[in-house]
Structures are given as structure tokens and as C-alpha cells.
Amino acid sequence: MVTFFSDRxxxxxxxxxxxxxxxxxxxxxxxxxxxxxxxxxxxxxxxxEPEADSLQVLTQVHTARYLxxxxxxxxxxxxxxxxNAGRQPFPSVWPVRTLRSDVEPDNFVAxxxxxxxxxxxxxxxxxxxxxxxxxxAAVSAARCLGAGxxxxxxxxxxxxxxxxxxxxxxxxxxxxxxxxxxxxxxQGCERVAVLDVDYHHGNGTQxxxxxxxxxxxxxxxxxxxxxxxxxxGHADETxxxxxxxxxxxxxxxxxSTVPAWFDALEAACARLARHGGDxxxxxxxxxxxxxDPISAFALQGDDFSRLGRRLARLGLPVVFVLEGGYxxxxxxxxxxxxxxxxEQG
Length: 345
Ligand code: OKP
Ligand code: ZN
Description:
Elements: E1 2-4, E2 16-19, E3 22-25, H1 30-42, E4 47-48, H2 55-61, H3 64-80, H4 108-114, H5 127-146, E5 151-154, H6 176-186, E6 192-196, H7 203-209, E7 215-222, E8 247-252, H8 258-275, E9 279-284, H9 301-312, E10 318-322, H10 328-344
Parallel strand pairs: 1-4, 1-5, 5-10, 6-7, 6-9, 7-8, 9-10
Antiparallel strand pairs: 2-3
This protein binds {5-[(3-aminopropyl)amino]pentyl}boronic acid and zinc ion.
């Protein structure tokens, strides 16, 4: 399978995040992509550097002021104090209900809060460059489908599905799946679907397409009553306006069994089949793996092959976009299992 991979991912390398009140090493690390790259190469899959520039598509997915903030964030942080180069910025204040988000403050941390949904998305010096490489891969993948390729894998990090039009969150900065879907629409696909199989609901992707009938969003995830991102991902979110009926959430309780997960996947596939469409984007989170340190589903290596085979049966051209998966040493095998299951299916 055509696979896009850029070493630029490694420029996003914050050291720690907050977890249960403690500073802990980041779960979302450069090593994750290293394991995926190594396993792809070991299995004989060639890697290609993303060749497209995603900037135009990014302006259709994210707001201009958010892109401007993100592109300059690290320089602004270091400009406050040269010693900040060795520190990580975190937001500490957010414009929740009754507060204004239309006026962009001058204060850096206040702007960071304006453009963040949580304090769990640490920035580093190369965050923009790394995230941009993921978006470039997403557009490159869409172009490949346009040229007749059956499936493409974007093996990029950081992930993207929690990032909304104007905010970062959950380790995500630019919404690569949304960028792939939007690029497909722009190059003539009239109906696109995004299937999100990450353990966590893809709140960013859902919100970006919530009013639109041309991009169906279907997601299987841990029930937001107990699982991140908590404030979106319920079954009663079905779309709005022209987009009514084009959003399907299939939340499952934390601890759900593998058969329960595949039953939900069947329901998702039924909706995707009814949509038809010209192309599918898969937000490929692999944190449904039993060994994942921050998630609570139970898939094993073979189950990822089965997932790939099932998706192949939809008969649609597919862009796979890597999202979560924090059992880093197993991430490569689990990713390759989906890819090769798809190729065999
Ligand atoms: C990203 B993806 C916050 C710790 C919790 C949220 C999990 C983000 C998962 N301090 N972080 O969907 O795999
Ligand atoms: Zn996840």
C-alpha cells in the first residue's frame, strides 16, 4: 500500500504532559512513529515523503486565526523569555460559557487557552512543522486516490481527530482526517465518509463536518460519559441543518468485549454502505488494543487484520490516517495488520 511518512514528525517532541495531577512523560511520542516505520519497512512496504502542500486545504478546515496562532506559537512563547525554550507552555484559563472567544487576547497563555480544549496537548519547538507534515500527507493521499490508487496510509503523528476548526486538544493540532476528506471533496468527490475507530471520539472531525451532508462522520469509541473527550460523542448527536442524519456515534462502555466492538463496526459499515460515496477516510486509532495504557477496549493483533479485511469489503477507495495508539512497541504490528488485512480482503 502506498504509505506516506515524513521524518518531520520527530520535530514534535514535548517531554511531559499532566496525568492524574502529575507531570508524566508524554504518551504520544516520536518513538510511536518509529515503530510504525520500522514494521512497515520490515514487511516490505515502501515509504514516500508527502509531496503536496496542504496549506490551501487547511484554510478550509481550520480558521485563519487558529492557523496563524499555531504556526507562530512556539516563537511567541520563546519571545516572552529566552528560557522558555526549555519549558513547555500549558494553558491555564479557557473561555467557557459566558466568556468571549471572539476577541483574541494579546496575552500568550490566554490565547493558548482560547485555542485549546484541554491542558493535555503539549507544544514543542517543531509542533507546527510536524503537524503540517501530517496534513501534507493527508492531501498527498487524497491526490493518490484521485489518480486511481485503491488505498493509502498516512503514517504521521501527532494525531489529529480531536483538533477542531479553531482549537487543539488531545495531542492533536491539525485534523489530518478532515484535511483528507476536504481534499477529496475539493478534487470532485461528491460524497465522502470518515470512519473513526480510535478509542476516543473524534470530536474535532465531527464538529468540522456537523452541518454538512457531503461528509458523513461515523465513530466507534469509548462512551464519553466516562472517557475522553467527555463533552462530545453521544449517540443522540446526529448532525445539524443540512448535515442532519450525516453523523453517527456508536459509543461503547469502557471495558467492552471484542465481539461487542465488531458488532458496532458492523453497524458502522451498514451506515457507510448506505451512504455509498466516492471515498472513505479512516481515522485509524490503534488504542483499542488490549495493551493500550490509557484506553479500555480489548482488541488483539489478529483483530486488527480482521478490521482491515472488513473495511476492504466496503469496496471504497480508502485513506488511512494514523491517530492514537500508545502501546508503542505493538503499534507497528497493529498498524501493519490493518493495512495487510485490507490488502488481502
Ligand atoms: C488522543 B487520541 C490529559 C490526559 C488525557 C487525553 C487522551 C487523548 C487521546 N492530561 N489525554 O484520541 O488517541
Ligand atoms: Zn485515542
